């Protein structure tokens, strides 16, 4: 089976199947997917998306993001679409970060600090949004689902981590899946295009210099995921209590998810 699923106009589209989970079981292939936005779907992409037989699409983008770039999912597709409107305080699109580093002198360390704070906010301030994601997954009773945001990195990365955690996947494996964003070929092509664009607009900055900036802030880092789960333990004492109290996903509900999305 294929982890990275190539689309013409969607980056970082991945299948969450094949991961070892609780009880010597593995996550099912072709059931849980994650990706970047679906704004520019080509006709070929739409055909490919239909073939996944999705029951649910959770869009973590803010309302403004969704208004600027509506998903190109045909109305003829019978799919439950949920707009979850997540935009943590201090969140910025990558281009804003790079401009701040180029023209305002923001340091790499300052960027990394703000990213950690954003991940803590995802876990605590937007738990109600991720609770809605789980409610929709439970309502779907094991039917295929896709979660996505703008780049399929942060909001989606944390959402995928929660789903895998509920299925009993180890922290080590969850982190490995999270870091696969850095290996997504289409995402890396996007970064290279941005480097070329900024080289033209930034006299005195060579592509090698710009590549260093982009490579310092674009790749997702394990410490961000550690920060979000650390905030959970600080606030709730354990991930189990977080599921029970913040996400309203009880032990029985997690067992239901495991019965649908795991196999021997």
What proportion of the residues form beta strands (DSSP E)?
5-15%
Sheet with the most strands, sense and barrel status: 5 strands, mixed
Corresponding CATH superfamily: Protein tyrosine phosphatase superfamily
Low-confidence stretches: none
What spatial form do the alpha-carbon principal axes imply? Answer: globular
Number of helices: 12
Quickly give the structural class.
alpha/beta
What would you report as the Rg, rounded to the nearest angstrom?
A: 18 Å
**What is the count of β-strands?**
7
CATH architecture: Alpha-Beta Complex
Reported by name, the CATH topology is: Protein-Tyrosine Phosphatase, Chain A
Write a brief caption for the model.
This protein is of the alpha/beta class and 264 residues long. It has helices spanning 43-51, 63-68, 94-103, 108-125, 127-140, 155-166, 171-179, 185-201, 207-217, 222-236, 239-246, 251-261, and strands at residues 14-15, 26-27, 32-35, 56-59, 80-83, 145-148, 262-263.
